[in-house]
Amino acid sequence: MVISGPSGAGKTSICQALLRDLPQTVWSVSVTTRSPRLGERDGESYSFVSADEFRRRERAGDFLESAEYVGHRYGTPREPVETALAGGKNVVMEIDVQGGMQVAQRMPESVRIFVLPPDMQSLRARLEGRRTEQEEQMRRRIAQADGEIAVARDSGCYQYFVVNDVLENTIEEVKNIIEQERNKR
Ligand code: 5GP
Known about the structure:
The protein is 48% helix and 21% strand. It is built from seven helices and nine strands. The site of guanosine-5'-monophosphate has 14 residues, from strand 5, strand 6 and helix 4.
């Protein structure tokens, strides 16, 4: 399962609910060159690495997909995803649109969902409420959001777009999508 959407759209809360509620479902721990936010522990939400280490792993072919997002690199380690899938587990990847397009190509059987904010004001309010980003970073993330939504729509790689207005409803909607997709297979 690929969950994408602009920063502040609520992807992380949705992913946490999927991990809590769906059986046999694991989180793909991405590698990133950005610094940990307050409360983020290495190896949980992300593995935090230097730019050199990221490049080394990229050259070694360790990543299923990778991208640059507002000045930092992000990548999904291939091996844990393949091992989990081979063991019959579902894997949740919270990745950006560039990554979503790569996964769509490499794993066409994936379910790809794009989470939209109800409107740009609420996106801004959520990012401001988070208070984890510096002003400049926040500005760049908001600027990125518009373009990201357009690219997601044009890419044709997302089978579903969900508007995250009331979180609990969105979680139900996403769970229903996954259930439907499971039944189809
Ligand atoms: P953040 O810095 O807010 O945690 O993440 C910034 C963006 O990078 C978000 O859109 C997030 O989904 C995306 N992202 C996180 N991990 C990965 C990854 O492994 N690959 C890609 N392509 N994007 C990622």
